[in-house]
Amino acid sequence: MITAIITTVTFLSTFFAVFHLICSSKHKREPVMNVKNQLGFSLIIPCYNEERILPSTIAGLLNLDYGNFEVIFVNDGSTDQTGKVLNDMLNITPYYGDRIVAGGLVYQSKKHPNFFVIEKSNSGKAASLNKGIQASSKELIVTMDCDCILERDALKVINQTFQDQEVIAAGGVVHVMQYFLLNRKRKSIIDMQTLDYFKGFYIYKSSLAYNGALNIISGAFGVFRKDALLAVGGFRDGLGEDIDITIRLQEYALRQNKVITYNLGAVCYTECPETWRDLCKQRVRWQKAFLDAIIKNWRFLLKNLLKSNMCFLMIVDAAFSGTVAVISFLFNFLLMVLRSYYGYPLFFIIVTFLAVIFNVISALVAIRRAREHQLSLTRQQRQKTDISVRSLLASIVIDIVCFSFLRIYYFVKGSISFALNQKSWDKVERTTNFYKV
User: Which of 103, 134, 183, 421 has the most beta carbons within 10 angstroms of its beta carbon?
Assistant: First the structure.
């Protein structure tokens, strides 16, 4: 009986893993074309105690190669020098135009007139994003975290995607900032997360996009039609506003016959945790955010389980298969300890061997696809985004031997914390790194 259960769970987990690997190869990068119609983008960046990273963020925004955009920083009651940094770098002055925001004061940069700052009391990320939408003047909303830098042509690339009027939302690739934009020797924890991001964005998200099943447009870099955001009521408070808004937009898209997509050519760099403690805080929060979004949207997800690829894959693959696989792994691990006295059955040895081989193959495919993006860049861009295959190959071993077990720990801890109603944000500490832009 136990062997049958383990076999079934192993089959489900392996089936979906192979399914995503195959489907990801069918989601292709859009060919870059010279699009004359420049749609307007409002980049909304919530800030809470971001004084360390803001100089790099602003430098990245000033480096964008695009004409029709504005930037709206929303200072969410920061208790550090965030407001001072914004003022020093942008030279802001009170704005007396038509951008009126309830409960907030709007300022405009004297140095860069398309840069604005909203000062408000602390009320959370979702409320900050909604204030930014309220103050925006463009048709497309770009949501970014304050620790993010867009690649120079990111808006050009995503502008091409939204020439299709049926597209209401799109995500882009997110890379680890310390891996690409930092001139110093990297820690192994950075290489490990880089590999994890490669697999997540070049395999898993590519597969979901191919199947019309994206369940999260990353908060680090997401693009939305403003009218679609307003139609679903904007962002809601919670641990995972990016998952929640994506699911609600998928519901809207299903009713209106619209499209949510993912562009492999639009790239954003984000700062990742540099300590194991901060990594744990981040991944535990991700697990709590996932559960929070499932509970908030369970009616839509279950009602459309067999009508929507997104609902099916989120419930059957991400929620059910993933949860049961973790429980099965823990149970099997206990059995493994007991069996160590009696020897391991052939089935267990074969399954373990195949799992390791498949993980290696997935990692190599993800690295190759990331390299393909790197090789598509100009020579100048390539110099700052070199991918060290050797370090990533070493990370494959770390991923299998160490990080696989840590993911299970984060899953268990996050689930228990959520069940105990521990819904604190657990903000990750910013570094003092100076990034090249």
Answer: 134
Q: Indicate the residue type of 270.
A: T
Structure tokens at 192: 């490990």
Determine the Cα–Cα distance for residues 349 and 342; give it in Å rounded to an integer. Answer: 14
pLDDT (0 to 100) of residue 383: 46
For the entire predicted model, the pTM comes to 0.90
What's the pLDDT at 164? Answer: 93
| pLDDT over 70 at 5, yes or no | no
Written in H, E and C, the secondary structure of 140-179 is EEEEECCCEEECCCHHHHHHHHCCCCCEEEEEEEEEEHHH
Q: Which residues fall within 8 angstroms of residue 13, CB to CB, at 6 or more apart?
A: 321, 322, 325
The model's confidence at residue 329, banded by pLDDT at 50, 70 and 90, is: low
* Cβ neighbours of 62 (radius 10 Å): 13
Reported as half-sphere exposure (CB side, CA atoms, 13 A), residue 20 has a value of 29
**Interior/surface letters 396-428, b for 16+ CB within 10 angstroms, e for the rest:** beebeeebeeebbebbebbbebbeeeeeeeeeb
